[in-house]
Fold this sequence. Notes:
Layout: E1 3-4, H1 20-36, E2 48-54, H2 64-77, E3 91-97, E4 100-106, H3 120-134, H4 153-161, H5 168-182, H6 186-195, E5 199-204, E6 210-216, E7 224-225, H7 226-229, H8 235-243, H9 254-266, H10 268-274, H11 277-297, H12 303-313, H13 329-341, H14 347-370, H15 374-404, H16 409-422, H17 427-431, H18 436-448, H19 453-461, H20 472-504
Amino acid sequence: xxxxxxxxxxxPAPERERGxxxxxxxxxxxxxLPVNALAxxxxxxKTVWHCSVRAAPEDRILSDAEWAAIAQRIVRTTGIAPKGDxxxxxxxxxxxxxxxxxxxxxxxxxxxxxxxxxRDFTRAQREARKIEVDYGLRRVRPxxxxxxxxxxxxxxxxxxxxxxxxxxxxxxxxxxRLAVATASSxxxxxxxxxxxxxxxxxxxxxSGDIGGYSVTLPGETAWxxxxxxxxxxxxxxxxxxxxxxxxATDAGDRTAVWQRAAHTTEAVPHTLRTSDDQAGQAHIxxxxxxxDITAALSPPPLGPQLRATAEVFERANRSRITPHHRKAGALxxxxxxxxxxxxxxDGETLALVLFVIAAAVIAAAEWHAQRGHxxxxxxxxxxxxxxxxxxxxxxxxxxxxxxxxxxxxRALTRYQHTxxxxxxxxxxxxxxxxxxxxxxxxxxxxEQTGHDVGETLDQAAQPHNLVGANSPxxxxxxxxxxxxxxxxxxxRTTAAxxxxxxxxxxxxxxxxPAPATGLAANDPTRRR
Length: 528
């Protein structure tokens, strides 16, 4: 024991000759004395307050005296034992290990009243930020109350006993978030939860309407409401999101849908720079959905990595700004269209989508940083790092294939001149970039399909902030590819549909087939 309310509380550790159990009982009796002095009917329902304080692994080892001073600051700021209050709650601080302490207090003051410790967690966090500065410890990003609730120690212990790497709460949060991303209505949301193997218990209002929901996993006894999983997973918040989404339909050609998803996502950075805060927050939330669905539809070697990346970005999805989801309707809609077409086997298309998502995530990190959302910005930066790894893995072969088809020297010189004319500030970095031969191939393909190279380059550069970009050439490569392939595929798809419609005019009408997701029949993201 390193500190207590009076400095004389019995420490269980030194009294080895009597045994620690006797001393712990004596200590508990002293702590509970104010509680036991009250009549049973006057005692509060919760009488024990617990707080753990831990230093970061890279921090120096604090002395007992330093930890004692930190404990005193925590109990003062939370209202457990205000400075100079001789009638405050009784408390003790125990150092379990070199890097952390536990503070335990009884929630009855010595004058019989209950402490004024409302919002104690927020107050403790605020004091912890000051302690980090005063003691030269690692600075933790301050939160804003929008983070998902962390699993309790009991939940973590249970997960380890069962051999799980994540707790039931974390598994449920992932499944509920994915269910929201796949749904266009409340009915579809609850159906998706059942398909994911989640047990759902609706909360009925006196009117009979559903006012909320709780979920659990088979074999688990603990139920969690949506708001206990994350602030944006309560039923009212989910309804607000779904109200801004148009029902998705069969969008046709698979590659065309993925190209459209890339083209829509490419506009997100520009939207975050120019739109109001509510539209910006809505686009970041929609970007999280797109990342969830992309991870679910990605090929097996990449899927687990992208799912872990989506988990990291989850923290960036929320802030104190209320999103206006209708303003991100296009991104919501194209995300759900991907479910009808399923995953793409085209490595170039997948690399394109990952690149534009990564660029949008970087824009989201900058957006949060400009507004002081430090935890969200840090989560977005971490996501961009993970996405860059996934992109490099996916794009290596498509870029090599494009570079192998690079045009001849005369065409390369002509394209270099065009880049110098259209983008003079970036021409040198673009034409000396290792991906320049691949970009030249993309420009040649665009020219062969009737596109003006200069005009296409100018249009491709507009959505991007090329200043400070790691590789302006890659931004242009994928932006040009998204535009030129989208138009070509769109024309081909329209022609195919026209031909099919003409052929069917003399045929007997048949029922519309169910949308296919391209996933395995037993995959929980498959629609039924």
